[in-house]
Design a protein that fits this description.
By secondary structure, the protein is mainly beta. It has one helix at 25-35, and strands at residues 39-43, 50-51, 67-71, 74-83, 96-103, 110-114, 127-132, 145-150. The strands form two sheets. A five-stranded antiparallel β-sheet has the order 6-5-4-7-8, with no helix packed on it. Strands 2-1-3 form a three-stranded antiparallel β-sheet, covered by helices on one side.
Length: 167
């Protein structure tokens, strides 16, 4: 008994997951400060790297992070990608830019959107600043920042991103 069957090349398999997340002390502090419109990093006493969002320990040394630092909402683009395909359920229309941004005073990049310019103008080393949503909309979430917009400051050389503190 031989039946010819078409090769399956795709299928829809919607999944709904309900879960609970426990932030932990450092992430909870980070979220609390975001609700206040401030960006919190934590410094490693051993190597001096500043993590944002703060983790329990330094990713390089394994030392517990305990020294808090309020950081600027200015940043430097470390790397980026231009997204040209629509993402199901995402209200943002392509093309849009997603970037690894190193906040001033931080060592570790965060991921966020870059907007307010043509995607072709985005480059490594470009200086940007957070565009915050109205304070009445702030939650305990990084989405309090709508996106980062380029600012009129000189680019940072790629080898210096994450090493220099900017004013």
């Amino acid at each position: 008994m031989s039946e010819e069957r078409a090769t399956i090349t795709e299928m829809a398999a919607p999944i709904f997951l309900q879960y609970h997340f426990t932030a932990g002390r450092n992430v909870a502090r980070f979220m609390t400060e975001l609700k206040r419109g401030r960006l919190l990093g934590m410094c490693c006493a051993a190597c001096g790297s500043v993590h944002v969002p703060p983790r329990g320990s330094c990713t390089a040394c394994g030392i517990a992070l305990s020294e808090e630092r309020i950081l600027s909402d200015k940043a430097t683009i470390k790397s980026f990608t231009v997204v040209h395909l629509p993402i199901p359920g995402n209200p943002i229309e392509p093309p849009f830019v997603v970037a690894n941004l190193v906040l001033d005073g931080a060592s570790v990049p965060v991921i966020h959107l870059v907007s307010g310019c043509d995607s072709a103008d985005v480059r490594i080393g470009m200086r940007v600043r957070a565009v915050w949503k109205p304070a009445a909309e702030w939650e305990y979430a990084f989405e309090n920042i709508a996106y980062f917009r380029p600012i009129d400051e000189p680019d940072v050389p790629a080898e210096d991103i994450g090493r220099l503190a900017h004013a």
